[in-house]
Amino acid sequence: MKLHFINSFCYNPLSGSGSHVKDRITIQAPATVANMVCGFDVLGFAVNDPYDEMSICFTGKPGITIINEDEYNLPTDPERNVAGAALLAMLEETAGDIGFELRICKHIKPGSGVGSSAASSAGAVVAANWLLNNPFTNEDLVRFAMNGEKLASGVKHADNIAPCIYGGVTLIRSIFPLDIIQLTAPPLYVTIVHPQIEVRTSDARGILKQQVLLKDAIRQWGNIAGLVAGLLKSDYELIGRSLEDVLIEPVRSILIPGFDKIKQLSKEAGALGGGISGSGPSIFMLSKDEETAKAVEQQMHSVYERLSLDHHTYITTINQQGVKLIV
Amino acid sequence: MKLHFINSFCYNPLSGSGSHVKDRITIQAPATVANMVCGFDVLGFAVNDPYDEMSICFTGKPGITIINEDEYNLPTDPERNVAGAALLAMLEETAGDIGFELRICKHIKPGSGVGSSAASSAGAVVAANWLLNNPFTNEDLVRFAMNGEKLASGVKHADNIAPCIYGGVTLIRSIFPLDIIQLTAPPLYVTIVHPQIEVRTSDARGILKQQVLLKDAIRQWGNIAGLVAGLLKSDYELIGRSLEDVLIEPVRSILIPGFDKIKQLSKEAGALGGGISGSGPSIFMLSKDEETAKAVEQQMHSVYERLSLDHHTYITTINQQGVKLIV
How many Cα atoms within 13 Å fall on the side-chain side of residue B172? Predict the structure, then answer.
């Protein structure tokens, strides 16, 4: 699949401004893994594969035009499309009667749990910001893109948006006010399996208890503190020990066939640990080296073949760059 | 106050073993600040002032003899004394009919909320381990010393014990199994005020709700993740922003007169942030430099003078060493 819009009409209102401007921006927006097991709603990381491709240009008239170049039949009404919602939020803070044409070629399957909606929303606003000659900060872009997440799941959350825009592992210490911290990490291989079942983010949120035991919360914040320390100290063993979720996983994993078996066999194959990617159904596992990541993939295959469940796997690494300018 | 036991009788069963052994060990055990605002039950740090002094020697007969060299009239029955309880746990894992005489000169007032019981328990077992020629690991010593905490508060917790033994800032990721992580930190000045009121650790635990809102727990683990990142990255601003406790402080601070005012005025005076030390009643504030730490102390004085409340203050720094061998 490839984008085919290089010859479509582009109008650039910035062309006469004297600064070096582009008529069209093409980007890649990476998939992301939210929560990172013990960091529900606050941790996430970007991966190098899969990613969406998008292209944006000015139209010469106010408003957003969305053209889908993929098979997913997502809405083209900007108010019902997550990328559109993000761009509309951006236009509200942009002077002048500006309009964009956005062409989207998604490779990240919607509903797979690896930040498909975030890639659309974040990719769109990062591309538009480049087209506008960078008037907005990354924090602004996260704010705009969260409108896409609200449309997708009913909640403004940034644990996919932030790593998609910043790259690497990000901590969203706080949403209001927004406080995003980039965390360094040692080299990590990521094995992802996407079983072809549907888990709606809104359903996965709906089944969570709104009250939790203090003792469980203490265990959870001990783990996230351990995970952050493990990442910053490049301590693989500590990362592995800290990848434990006593609150969310026990509830959500019920929605994912074979989850416990995949986790057990992946760890036996040498994975540091892992769990549900975002709200699922994808499962991710972290490994120190590619050989282990491949052994983990084999275990994932074996479980879902036994269950006769269609699935896709990815072996990838952490994407350090976030949304990437192509042309 | 000084220890006066240098001429008391000491019997050393290891003397004939050929290794270099001491007949008597004298140590200083530092005060500690547990919780560190957003790390309830999992974070703590040691300070250079105040500290307890202890001296230990063999007696030649099984059992523990405790001699208090201070004004606090603590129990000398080893089963009712926190240092005794810790030593008894150690003796259970020590071969031979060994007995200790422990002399304690406490400078950390019991019940002040800066780890007085932990200093006794941890100091005793570290000293005894040195006397025995170090058969035990630091983790073993934490296990033994937690028996003292259980005697004092009804719960085995390590957020004072671990920093007292290891020094610096420590994360107790897990108690069962024990997983202690040392966290580096940039230079920090600590201002502590101890209002002369009594808050029992068991009462301070009793008023906590056993269930918390998931959204508050998320905010809390965002903050602890931010604090750990801030410490390891030496990012003072991030440390300051992360020193927020939405769960425990709102409940416990009610027991401490003037708490909100001290916090507000300390931050206005330039403190990065702070909160209740352990279960209180002491309050601690962190600052980047000594001048700010002194300005914070002035604010603490002013609040408690207005309330006519007796209080002690300390300006100190983080103790990197933990329990210290003197002779």
Answer: 31
Both tokens of A268, joined, read: 């036996």
Q: What is the identity of the amino acid at A135?
A: P
The closest of A132, A127, A120 to A84, measured between CA atoms, is A120
Check whether residue B96 and residue B236 sit in a common domain: no
Can A149 be counted among the known catalytic residues?
yes
Token pair for A57: 């240009």
CB neighbour list of residue B312: distance below 8 Å, 6 or more residues apart: B109, B193, B194, B196
- DSSP category for residue B298: H
Interchain proximity A212–B212, CB inside 8 Å: yes
Sign of the CA dihedral with A118 first, then A120, A123, and A128 last? negative
In the numeric block, which tokens belong to residue A312?
């896709």
Residue B292 in 3-state DSSP?
A: helix
Q: How many domains does chain B have?
A: 2
Q: Is A139 a catalytic residue?
A: no
Contact, B279 vs B299, CB < 8 A? Answer: no
Domain that holds residue B221: 189-317
Q: Tell how far CA A272 is from the center of its chain.
A: 21
Task: Please indicate if any CB of chain B lies within 8 Å of the CB of A147.
Answer: no
Q: Is residue B3 part of a domain?
A: no
Assessment of whether the complete model's pTM goes beyond 0.80: yes
Amino acid identity for residue A322 in this structure:
G
**Domain shared by B131 and B179, yes or no:** yes
Within 8 A of B181 by CB-CB distance, chain A residues are 226, 229, 238
H or E element, residue A51: strand A43-58
Of A214, A220, A238, the CB nearest to B221: A220
Q: Is residue B10 part of a domain?
A: no
pLDDT in tens, B128-160: 999 999 999 999 999 999 999 999 988 899 999
Instruction: Determine the length of chain B.
Output: 327
Amino acid at B327: V
> pLDDT tens digits for B231-286?
999 999 999 999 999 999 999 999 999 999 999 999 999 999 999 999 999 999 99
Q: What is the CATH number of the domain that holds A133?
A: 3.30.230.10
Q: Does B247 lie in the same domain as B179? A: no
Could you report the predicted ipTM of this complex, rounded to two decimals? 0.93
Is residue A304 in some structural domain? yes
CB atoms within 10 A of CB B161: 33
User: Does one domain contain both B209 and B112?
Assistant: no
Inside any domain, residue B6: no
A235 shares its domain with A252? yes
Beta strands, E only, B22-133 = 24-34, 43-58, 63-68, 99-105
